[in-house]
Amino acid sequence: MPLMRRLDQLLANLGYCSRREARAWIQAGRVTVGGTVVDDYGAKADPVEVRIDGKPPDHPDGLLLLLHKPAGLVCSHDEREGPNVYRLLPARWQRRNPAITSIGRLDKDTTGLLLLTDQSELVHRLTSPRQKVPKVYRATVASDLSPALVPLFASGQLLLPDEAEPCAPAELNILGPREAELTLTEGRYHQVRRMLGSQGCEVRTLHRRRFGPLELADLAEGQWRELPLDTFAVSSPA
Which of 40, 46, 58, 107 is catalytic? Predict the structure, then answer.
């Protein structure tokens, strides 16, 4: 059964304008339902039947985006923390309600694959430790990496300062004297930097190249691409 939505709320939630402005748009005849002009802003309709200035609504079911995050941008909506990744998106998307947010965060200096969505259920599911979604990071460090770090990280016994629970087992692949890839299935605060730093290896650069089954491929820094909302659909048991 289609989800019927109030017209003024639909326009406002999708970022076209404020709710007050949406009422003026509707009363001015800019909105049609099933090809018929509707001037009642309180009317409810299936978004599939709605046209705004002759065009269908912009992603009424939600958005899921894969972004190649550059350095220098934060994942917070708090402007006090500095320029954020949401500025890279179209202005209308920045006004959506619920707001587009990141699925997990990358700190200001970390680059790479970042997922953005306005689907809160997806955020909760993919950031839950129970899901064990693998994330792959490539790091360069300030000192040589010891081979002894590989079994330590894999042991599930590495305890970070000020934390009571050890880190879950993580796969460390040493690529060079000061370069490594680390695969995590949890997402603690600054986890890669803190894990390596706890062993005397200060992280100089950090890049996430994979999240679950997704990779950046040839996506340039600062660019994004849309993903189907069912990219992480849960399979029903047979």
Answer: 107
Summarised one tens digit per residue, pLDDT across range 49-102 is 999 999 999 999 999 999 999 999 999 999 999 999 999 999 999 999 999 999
Closest CA to 207 of 185, 180, 233, 225: 180
Burial of 229 (0-12, 13-18, 19+ CB in 10 A): middle
Structural tokens at position 145: 């990496």
Q: Are 194 and 160 in contact (CB under 8 A)?
A: yes
Contact 19, 63 (CB under 8 A): no
- Give whole-number Cα distances, 78 to 17, 75, 222, in Å: 22, 9, 20
Return the amino acid letter for 148.
A
Tokens of 42: 């309180």
| SS3 labels along 68-126 | EECCCCECCCCHHHCCEHHHHCCHHHHCCCCCCEECCCCCCCCEEEEEEECCHHHHHHH
Catalytic-residue membership of 107: yes
Amino acid at 107: D
Residues 6+ apart with CB under 8 A from 89: 65, 100, 116, 224
pTM for this prediction: 0.93
Q: Which helix (H) or strand (E) holds 68?
A: strand 64-69
Q: How confident is the model at residue 233 (pLDDT cuts 50, 70, 90)?
A: confident
- Find how far residue 61's CA is from the centre of its chain: 16
Helix, coil or strand: residue 25: helix
Average pLDDT over the chain reads 95
DSSP helix, strand, coil percent of the chain (3-state; round to 5): 25, 25, 50
pLDDT at position 234: 63
Query: Which amino acid, one-letter code, is at 139?
Result: A
